[in-house]
Amino acid sequence: MSKLNKADKFFDLSDYGRPAAQIIVNYLKHTTITPIQVTMLFGISGCIAIACILYHYYVLAGIFLLLKSVLDAADGELSRAINKPSYVGRYLDSIFDILLNLLVLLAIMQVSKVSVYLTMLAWLCMQMQGTLYNYYYVILRNKLAGGDTTSKIFEYKEPKALAGETQQAVHITYTIFNILYSFFDKTIHLLDSNAYKEKQMPNWLMSMVSCYGLGFQLLIIAILLPLGFIGSIIYFFIGYTILLFVFIGIRKYGKY
User: Fold this and answer.
1) N or C: at which end does the chain have fewer Cβ atoms within 10 angstroms?
2) Distances, alpha carbon 121 to alpha carbons 80, 125, 231, 240, in Å
3) CA distances from 206 to 202, 251, 252 (A)
4) What is the DSSP secondary structure assignment for residue 30, as one 8-state letter?
5) Residue 198's pLDDT band (boundaries 50, 70, 90)?
6) What's the whole-model pTM score?
7) Could you tell me what percent of the chain has a pLDDT over 90?
8) All domains in the chain, ordered by first residue
């Protein structure tokens, strides 16, 4: 099941793993495997990719980064397929994402000898890019009838636990999520504070901004690693941030 109705879907550059995820989910939904266990698996896949980078197995690193993207889509797909939404799963997914992004860039730093300051800047840039995409995407999903609403436009209040999860687990994961993401969420909201008032994000704009989705970011890394451009990855994500202001400008001032 998609996060959007069929009529509202856009061409999402970061969602290439969805077809494979749906195949996996069609099998998993008849088993006892839970969405959170799938989230754990994508965390393991990301860790294997990091180890492969450190040991210079760049093709394998790319494969496990792409597998991580597939499993990242599969946990949400499974949750919707068995009709068991979870705030714990939603926050845990995001916590794994941001920490794995940092560890991937630190592994690249270790191999390429890029400075730690540029690496941390690249991580900040990478997170700002992903936050803009998620901000617009969540606005779209919350505005449309039938869209997935587990994610909120503003995550400033701890939600009440859903069936099958405890409030304590929600509290712990929400607190960690808020610590890790609040800076990025507030910064993007400051840069485009009126986006949530938009009646509907046009599909062509969402397709453009999807180049900032985590799946597409990981695809870029998976391609650059075996091509011998590991030393350029940090610099790429710093420079890639310029599009953030282009997309916000289009959203604010575009005629559509």
Assistant:
1) C
2) 35, 6, 15, 12
3) 6, 10, 14
4) T
5) confident
6) 0.92
7) 82
8) 6-253 (1.20.120.1760)
